[in-house]
Amino acid sequence: MRFIGNKEKLVEWIYDELKFTNLKGGLFFDFFSGTTNVGKHFKKKGYQIISSDLLYTSYVLQKAYIENNEEPKFSGILKDIEEPLNLFPSSELEMVLNYLDGLEPKKGFIYENYTPEGTVHLDAPRMFFTSENGKKIDAIRIQINEWFKDNLISEQEYFILIACLIETVPFYANISGVYAAFHKKWDPRAIKPLKLRPIEIISNDKKNLVFNTNSIELIKNFDYDIIYLDPPYNSRQYAPNYHLLETISKYDSPEIRGVAGLRDYSKQKSTFCVKSKALEELEYIVSQANFKYLVLSYNCEGIMKTDDILNVLKKYGELSFKEYKYLRYKSNNNGDSNKKKFINEQLFILKKLVS
């Protein structure tokens, strides 16, 4: 998924840097879960995962990837689904996705508010999705909700299906990377007919717990082996950037405003986006949480300065500091790609003193 700060390309490096702890299968707290890429990686490595995020989209992904440990069977609906003839047999999940792909398109909330045909009355019709893909998203979400309402799919199956849609949508959205704005001309990917993609089902046979809340509320609830922090590093809040995924995830027909059709995100703001409060929030977490190791992944251009972070963390134990150079996202080069092709990811690893 296209997501600011996505650690998909860095997670193996992060894991390697933590091997010195000799922890195997401990309790890992993914504090800012986001796309769940870090949580998924450590789940595969045998850790029990606790994860949380303010975004409901992240919660959907957490339920599907982190909490769930079983292949979905869809026993309540498969009897009514006919699988087209294939050379190879499909999994139950693929059979359901094929059925959803073949639904008759419907004019619902996404079509009516985020396609040019549905918003033709606006001064600037919204071009997030083609009209056909908007109607297809609506048909899929309406069907998933009906199945769940009628108790034909389980809660886990419900979240797995929504997660498949959420993982699919970015490949057909007419955007540069975030949903705060749409292109005025169609991206070649956006005009292709939407086809659902199955997600990976991961099992580690542990009771992994996921939350849709401010992670601050969870810091004293468990004794963590590792707390992993990957906070926002600038003043731009995540919720408005991913408002459309939130709406597809919830499918709650919210009141929207502005050119981009933003939903209200007043209760989804992170203190780490506020320069005057971010460092204070970090120190509160470090001082109050119960953990053996705390890992902070941060951007070298973040609003918290490196020396300030080091000064806070070193008060609480043994501290190591690593950097990893990687190619920056094109949408994050401030128009200066010739001079700013690379950026450093910073990794602060704190071993907390035992009091």
Feature tags:
355 residues, alpha/beta, two-stranded antiparallel ribbon, 11 helices, 15% strand
Q: Care to describe what's here?
A:
With 355 residues, this protein is of the alpha/beta class. The protein has one domain (11-272). It contains eleven helices and nine strands. It has helices at residues 11-17, 37-44, 56-67, 92-101, 109-114, 131-149, 155-168, 238-241, 243-250, 275-288, 306-313, and strands at 27-30, 48-52, 209-211, 224-229, 256-257, 262-263, 291-299, 317-327, 342-352. It is globular and about 60 Å long.
Topology (elements, then pairings):
Elements: H1 11-17, E1 27-30, H2 37-44, E2 48-52, H3 56-67, H4 92-101, H5 109-114, H6 131-149, H7 155-168, E3 209-211, E4 224-229, H8 238-241, H9 243-250, E5 256-257, E6 262-263, H10 275-288, E7 291-299, H11 306-313, E8 317-327, E9 342-352
Parallel strand pairs: 1-2, 1-4, 2-3, 4-7
Antiparallel strand pairs: 5-6, 7-9, 8-9
Helix pairs in contact: 3-7, 6-7, 10-11
* Strands side by side in the biggest sheet: 3-2-1-4-7-9-8
Mean pLDDT: 91
How far from one another are the termini?
41 Å
Shape: globular
* Helix-strand sequence: HEHEHHHHHEEHHEEHEHEE
- Total separate domains: 1
The beta-strand count equals 9
Low-confidence stretches: 331-337
Number of helices, counting only DSSP H or I runs of 4 residues or more: 11
Q: Tell me the helix content.
A: 25-40%
Radius of gyration, taken over Cα atoms and rounded to an integer in Å: 21 Å
**How would you sum up the major sheet?**
7 strands, mixed
How much of the sequence lies in strands comes to 5-15%
Q: Structural class, from secondary structure content?
A: alpha/beta
